[in-house]
Amino acid sequence: xxxxxxxxxxxxxxxxxxxxxxxxxxxxxxxxxxxxxxxxxxxxxxxxxxxxxxxxxxxxxxxxxxxx
Length: 68
Fold this sequence. Notes:
The chain has 1 helix and no strands. The protein is an all-alpha fold and 68 residues long.
């Protein structure tokens, strides 16, 4: 009976260790996800800024060619 109790306590300790490691990994995943979406938003602003610049250049070229 004592051997079974020791084995049970050991399994409980291992289970607690595994649970804490998994919680740490989940926290790390959440942090990396948050940083990914922060940069993803910046990429979106840069994309639309580039689109506006392209449209302005097109308008200037169109005006230069057809305004004569």
